[in-house]
């Protein structure tokens, strides 16, 4: 397990950190020295387990309940984080979900739920983080930036995805929300960037990799010929959170083994 002090004394809020990528990011940021606020909406036991495990390896963490699409709950989560750790330096907008259906069969409820959590949730958390960065002011000995925000998107912010129109629309929205926030907030020294994972082994997509046949079929879409793991995303999130990426703003890192390189055309199309 690699450890560093790149995020020493900084507080990171990671949404949806009781599962999958969020959990992996929480561990990675902790191993770089950050105190981690492990957000969850359901699954308190799993969230507490993440906190216990972080503490067991010498880190600092706390759980914080909030539905990221609920304004009051998001505000209460940030109040709790600031009360406990003094401020927030890093936000990882990770929480997300799918409600898949064809366009003809998709209910308005399925559409709204995905947009509310995946897109509106990122706005609500970003707004509270920015307000806290502005309230706290610069602390140059901790970070060159006033604050750092990472928006978890998906390769489906640029690859259309039949039967997932709500999800693809939410992630396409995240891409331009992230870029607009980066443009608007850069003069205040707030850095906003995105991570777009390809196929990462987590509970959201178990069907796509849990059998040999499913994994072989998935690998046809991945030039690098391996399915990603949460540690791949944790490393990118740590870099984007640290001063190592201080001149990086408004970009998306596609952590996807080349999925966005049109593998269907590898033999000439
Ligand atoms: P996951 O289902 O394991 O984790 C999603 C997390 O979000 C869970 O902890 C869940 O409880 C939480 N969540 C859902 N609704 C919430 C709400 N209203 N408030 C707070 N938390 C909420 O899936 P994952 O693969 O770890 O997904 C994490 C992020 O990565 C998502 O934004 C997803 O779209 C994105 N992503 C994942 C993959 C992949 O291959 N796994 C690929 C591209 C993008």
Please compute the radius of gyration using only Cα atoms: 18 Å
* Span of the ends, CA to CA: 42 Å
Question: Secondary-structure element sequence?
Answer: EHEHEHEHEHEHHHE
The level 1 CATH classification is: Alpha Beta
Global outline: globular
Poorly predicted ranges (pLDDT <50, ≥5 residues)? none
Strand order of the largest sheet: 3-2-1-4-5-6-7
User: What's the count of strands?
Assistant: 7
What secondary-structure arrangement, pairings included, does this model have?
Elements: E1 11-14, H1 20-31, E2 35-40, H2 44-56, E3 60-65, H3 71-85, E4 90-93, H4 108-136, E5 147-152, H5 165-185, E6 190-197, H6 206-209, H7 212-219, H8 230-241, E7 252-255
Helix pairs in contact: 1-8, 3-4, 4-5
The protein binds nicotinamide-adenine-dinucleotide.
Mind explaining what this structure looks like?
- This protein is an alpha/beta fold and 269 residues long.
- It has a single domain (11-265), classed as Rossmann fold.
- It is 42% helix and 14% strand.
- It has helices spanning 20-31, 44-56, 71-85, 108-136, 165-185, 206-209, 212-219, 230-241, and strands spanning 11-14, 35-40, 60-65, 90-93, 147-152, 190-197, 252-255.
- α4 links the parallel β4 and β5.
- α3 (71-85) runs parallel beside α4 (108-136) and α4 (108-136) packs parallel to α5.
- The radius of gyration is 18 Å and the shape is globular.
- The mean pLDDT is 97.
- Bound molecules: nicotinamide-adenine-dinucleotide (NAD).
- Nicotinamide-adenine-dinucleotide is lined by residues 15-16, 18-22, 39, 41-43, 67-69, 94-97, 117, 152, 154, 197, 199-200, 202-205.
């Amino acid at each position: 397990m690699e450890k560093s002090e790149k995020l020493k004394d900084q507080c990171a809020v990671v949404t949806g950190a009781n599962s999958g990528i969020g959990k992996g990011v929480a561990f990675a940021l902790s191993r770089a020295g950050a105190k981690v606020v492990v957000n969850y909406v359901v699954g308190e036991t799993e969230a507490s387990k993440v906190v216990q495990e972080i503490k067991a390896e010498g880190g600092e963490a706390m759980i914080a309940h909030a539905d990221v699409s609920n304004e009051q709950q998001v505000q209460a989560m940030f109040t709790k984080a600031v009360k406990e750790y003094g401020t927030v330096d890093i936000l990882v907008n990770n929480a997300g979900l799918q409600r898949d259906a064809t366009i003809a069969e998709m209910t308005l409820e399925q559409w709204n739920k995905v947009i509310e959590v995946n897109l509106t949730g990122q706005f609500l958390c970003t707004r509270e983080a920015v307000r806290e960065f502005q309230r706290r002011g610069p602390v140059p000995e901790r970070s060159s930036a006033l604050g750092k925000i990472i928006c978890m998107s998906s390769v489906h912010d640029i690859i259309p995805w039949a039967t997932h129109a709500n999800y693809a629309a939410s992630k396409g929205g995240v891409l331009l929300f992230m870029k607009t926030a980066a443009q608007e907030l850069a003069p205040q020294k707030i850095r906003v960037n995105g991570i777009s994972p390809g196929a990462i082994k987590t509970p959201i997509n178990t069907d796509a990799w849990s059998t040999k046949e499913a994994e072989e079929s998935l690998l046809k879409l991945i030039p690098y010929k391996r399915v990603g793991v949460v540690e791949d995303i944790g490393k990118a999130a740590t870099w984007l959170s640290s001063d190592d990426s201080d001149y990086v703003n408004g970009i998306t890192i596609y952590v996807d083994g080349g999925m966005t390189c049109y593998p269907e055309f590898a033999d000439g199309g």
